[in-house]
Write a structure and sequence with these properties.
By secondary structure, this protein is α+β, with helices and mostly antiparallel strands. The chain has one domain: 3-Layer(aba) Sandwich (Glutaredoxin), CATH 3.40.30.10. The protein contains nine helices and four strands. The protein has a four-stranded mixed β-sheet with strand order 2-1-3-4, sandwiched between helices. The longest helix has 17 residues, at 57-73.
Length: 195
Amino acid sequence: MNKTFDFYFDFISPYSFLAHKKLKKIEKKIAIKIKYKAILLGGLHNLHGIKAPAFIPSKAKFMIRDCKMIAEKNNIKFKFNSYFPIKTVNLMRGVFIAEEDDYKNYYIDKIFDSIWMDGFNMNDQIVVDKVLKNLNINPKTFSLRCSSQNIKNQLKKKTDEAFEKGIFGAPSFYINNKIFWGQDRISFLIDELKK
């Protein structure tokens, strides 16, 4: 039985955070392996010609209420970030740095929590530097590595790959050449994993 799947995400997405938390709970109960795939959601939307819900006032208002409702239903600590939208390009590039240095899962957990549990202003470089220091990451080294062409290319490549597979939003899960889009499709993903 194939219990490995790809999880396409961007820290900017509160629904990706909620999916991450839900999957971590499931991961403890059944043997699944989550392969996190960092993408730049804004770039993916641009490739598809999509306007993000966060930039449509009526949808943005609904999204805040919806996320809080989902978090409460699933017993997930959540605070809609008052600094939203967060510019995540360097944070997403950081996933590739964390992967190279073998602390990817820890990094993903802590950055998600900083944005969607703690409500930190991750648009402020001073705040980002403080979070990185708390993760034992040197902010200057991190910033230099984020600006390297290799790291930039990796994020662009993953975003382009997602587009080519037909993925248009986050969170998206990919298994057996099938896409499951949205945190509310996790049960369908689990059914597919059990096949």
